[in-house]
Amino acid sequence: MYDYIIKYSNRKTVSLQISEDGELIVKAPYKFSQKKIEKLINEYSGWIDKNLKKHQELQANKVELSDADIVLLKDIANNVLPAKTEYFAKLMGVEFGSVKITSAQKRFGSCSGKNNICYSYILMLYPEKAIDYVVIHELSHTVHHNHSKQFYDMISEYMPDYKNAEKLLKGKQKIPYRE
């Protein structure tokens, strides 16, 4: 059996999640019994094992950065990412608003409804192919504000092997961008 934390609230459904600390959290309605929770955990043991393993792998591959490392990565990102965005935007025939470098830890990039694009400086820890994929991905959102088939078709047009680039972003080994 697993150690877990129960968070009761005025909800109608039950959910399981793995916290950033690697703890199993059960979110349940007030009337959901301990017995039902244990049955649910038993039923979803495969999901729990898979996600606990994924969390452990992420923790094992986490890179500790000094303040100086962060300053350097942000500087590189500010030099590289706007230029890459401009290059791919012209290639793809799309327009975007602005480019901003953030300290986001959980997402590499985002595109707002006004087509402003944000990238995390963390992206600079990955191979250039992965960086190019994120740029193309976010620029594709300027046309398709979703993850539809058309969206992925557009990405595929400019990076036919984009699935390999996605794998690099999920990969274990980070290889810093080299100018």
Give a written overview of the molecule.
This protein is α/β, with parallel strands linked by helices. It folds into two domains: 57 residues, no CATH class; 104 residues, Metalloproteases ("zincins"), catalytic domain (Zincin-like), CATH 3.30.2010.10. Helix content is 47%, strand content 15%. It contains six helices and six strands; from the N terminus they run E-E-E-H-H-H-E-E-E-H-H-H. The chain has a three-stranded mixed β-sheet. A three-stranded mixed β-sheet has the order 4-6-5, covered by helices on one side. Helix 3 packs across helix 4, helix 4 packs across helix 5 and helix 4 crosses helix 6. It is elongated, with a radius of gyration of 20 Å.
